[in-house]
Amino acid sequence: KLKTVDLLINGAGILDDNQIERTIAVNFTGTVNTTTAIMDFWDKRKGGPGGVVANICSVTGFNSIYQVPVYSASKAAALSFTMSIAKLAHITGVTAYSINPGITNTVLVHKFNSWLNVEPRVAELLLEHPTQTTLQCAQNFVKAIEANQ
Questions:
Q1: Would you write out the chain's pLDDT as a tens digit for each of its 149 residues?
Q2: What Gene Ontology molecular-function terms does this entry list (predicted)?
Q3: In a domain, 1, yes or no
Q4: Is the four-CA dihedral 16, 19, 20, 25 of positive or negative sign?
Q5: Nearest Cα to Cα of residue 59 among 82, 83, 75, 74
Q6: Distance CA 50, CA 23 (A)
């Protein structure tokens, strides 16, 4: 009905360091693949209208959680990819944002596996830190895009 897409939100993510390939595939490769697919449509060098990519990365892209290094690395890779895409906006016409939430109270953080089971209580320990609700995360996500930052 709309005939166009203005905003792509890459928000899929898993947190299970026992599933190394799947974690990388979902958290990083999926982000790259969907962004690449929409670039064929949006790229102004091909006559496209431009657009906005918003990739949900994580604060772990800046400060890894050592008990889940695969998750942290996959989010750091997504962050680096997004920063690169953002620097190409003057060429492609595509604006890119990384949204880097802290600990958000979702099913993702209630029970998950640490790398090589180095810390069986990692979910419990993580939840000892301040968290945000999904609503708070979403509201901040919208504010960041509206502020063009």
A1: 778 889 999 988 898 999 999 999 999 999 999 999 999 899 999 999 999 999 999 998 998 988 899 999 999 999 999 999 999 999 999 999 998 888 887 777 767 777 878 887 777 777 777 888 889 988 988 888 888 76
A2: alcohol dehydrogenase (NAD+) activity
A3: no
A4: negative
A5: 75
A6: 30
Catalytic residue among 71, 81, 97, 115: 71
Q: How many CA atoms lie within 13 A of 53 on its CB side?
A: 33
Which DSSP string do the residues of 27-45 spell out, in sequence order? Answer: IIIHHHHHHHHHHHHH-GG
Q: Which residue range is the domain that position 129 belongs to?
A: 7-147
Q: What is the CATH number of the domain that holds 139?
A: 3.40.50.720
- CA dihedral in degrees (53, 58, 67, 70; nearest 10)? 10
The reply to whether 71 belongs to the active site is: yes
- For residue 2, being part of any structural domain is answered with no
Domain count, the chain: 1
Q: What is the pTM of this model?
A: 0.88
Q: How is 101-127 classified by DSSP, letter by letter?
A: ---B-SGGGTS-PPGGGS-TTHHHHHT
